[in-house]
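lol ok so funny story. i was supposed to be doing the assay writeup but got distracted and ended up predicting the structure for this chain instead. priorities right. anyway since i did it might as well share w the group, maybe its usefull for someone
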Amino acid sequence: MNESKQSAYAKRFNKVLDYIERHLDDPLSVAQLCQVAHFSKFHFHRQFADYIGINVARYIVLLRLKQASYRIAFDPKVKIVDIALNAGFETPESFARAFRHSFGQSPSEFRKNPDWSRWHAVYQFRLPERNTVVNVDLVDFETTRIAVKEHRGPVEQLNAAIGCFIEWRKETGLSPKDSRRTFGIVYDNPDTTEPSLFRFDIAGEIRETIPDNAYGIIEKNIPGGRCARVRHLGSHSRIAESIYPLYRDWLPASGEELRDYPLFFHYLNLLPATPEAELVTDIYLPLA
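and the output, tada:
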């Protein structure tokens, strides 16, 4: 298959994957998915499994379980039975069986002590890379005081630090619902950094002194200055598809120089309240 045909084939599959992500709450049939990108229904099952690495039915189940697992871990006030029914399972028992089969924990065990490493391993799909065209704005970012939960270690454990930060926010009442922005500060590229050395800060805007706490939350600043800004739409797990064009294509052609501060994210909406397909994240690249 030549390069142009490969590209066209990838685009067709991306249409199918986008459709699945945006319609997880709806019934999804093979006939529907074939129509989305004009695949033959007689060959679609095999094409999907060969391309993605798992069959289409399993892929849909795992995405539904992923959305449910965020709610189980980060929204403890919601009953697991309600999460199960909202995830499209006929009964809580069928949801619990599928959950344990996938993650090795029952939903209640996951809520108490999620095994994020095993969870993360389940979602290592062979997804086609999307050739994202980024639109870059040059903006002035004002110095911002932030409360920070530092994550140091494998990216697979990042969700544990996020859960800790969410609990601290709830305890203090310093919620993003009160017009407080949420940030992620990316010190290292997880694709090229030794897992034990990976650094990432989960952060929230503050206007007051951080009280003494048992969560390890500390105060820092995001320094003000010029930044290149790109908006990423969709899952955080695919955010690299908006970052790489910024470094690879835009920066060399722009004539700009980088400032000595890491790339950072501003999360305009958040899991689990927002489905992954509807997430909006602004990426900031600090400039000299």
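The longest helix spans residues 3-22. The two ends are 44 Å apart (CA to CA).
back to the writeup now i swear
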